[in-house]
Amino acid sequence: MKKPSEPLLEVRDLRVDVGEQNVLKSVSLAVPAGALAVLMGANGSGKSTLGLTLAGHPRYKVMSGEARFGGQDLLPLSPEARARAGLFVSFQAPPDIPGVKNGLFIRSALNAVRESRSESPLDAFDFLASARTAAAELGLPDAMLNRPVNDGFSGGERKRNELLQLALLKPRLALLDEIDSGMDVDGVRAVVKLVQSLRAQGTAFVVVSHYLQLIESLEPDSVHRLDQGAIVEDGGLALARDIARTGFVRAPALAEA
Asked: Where does the ABC transporter domain lie (predicted)?
């Protein structure tokens, strides 16, 4: 009998504290290569904490449990090493970085990833050509590449800029934290189109979202509900539809159905 392959991302009994507060009590999640999992949950349930913990944010302290990525122990790695390994985490509220040009920022990140893959770096000319193409597909003007990172960007522009990074980096797994928040209709369509394109190339996704229309458009393989720092329900689109109908405060009979 053929042994089943190890999930690309495997989180087991992860417990995380932020300062003196325990935010994740025990989270377990497995995401195969190329799969798309959706995380749903009320505000404060731990969705963003999971993403920032996997990214290696220093404020988020892993107290117990494990996280493996591509068969490798993720937790001892620096944030830079996690990114080079192919993990991409978007921000719910992307920060601005005054004084650092957007194009230079993305090219530096891309070339660091290419170096880890034993690929030659892109020079400014080649990068600009690919960046302009990707930006046009996402509805971002070329001028955004020459401006400081997110400086003066609207909420929707910041999210599209996260998508631009995603499109160029082509990670093995992307965790998108409410990527549709602040987006107009065209922006949400750009999200769906890019996710579908990258999935076809093998990228796996963990998508945090509250909105059923986006979730249905993404056609997830699994849906998981977080509550008070733990995953309490697993399912598919039917679970997302139930949550949209009943809300996050669910009766025990519904959660056990």
From this structure: 9-253
